[in-house]
Amino acid sequence: MKKIILIILVLMLGNPARKPVKAYEEKTNKNIAIKEWNTWEYLGKFKITFYWLSENGRNTSTGAIATEGRTIAVDPNVIPYGTEVLIDGHVYIAEDCGGAVKGNVIDIFVEDEYMDMFYTDVYVKK
Description:
By secondary structure, this protein is of the alpha/beta class.
C-alpha cells in the first residue's frame, strides 16, 4: 500500500525542478505507471542533477545517442545500464555514466545548459 501511495504522490507532484522535459512517450504514460505499480522496485533517495552536450557530443558510454527525456547517467554499480528508472513520474533509461555520478546520484540529460539539483525517490523496473 505504501508503494501505491508513493507512486501516486510522485505522479501528482511531477518534476520539482520545474524544467519542461520531453516525455519518453513509449514509457511515461502515467496510467501505465499506476497500473504496473507492482513492477517497480523502490531503490532509495537519489541526488538528481542535469548534464548537457559536451565535447563528446551526444555519444554515451554505452554507445547510445543521448536523448532528452530518455537518457540518464548512473553509477553502473548501483543501476545497471539499460535499466528503466522512474523519476518523478517519468521513465528514463540508464545509458551513460560520468565522473561525478557515484552512488545514489543520477544525471539527467537535457538539450540546453540547465543547472539544478534536487533529491527524490527513485524506482527501477523489476
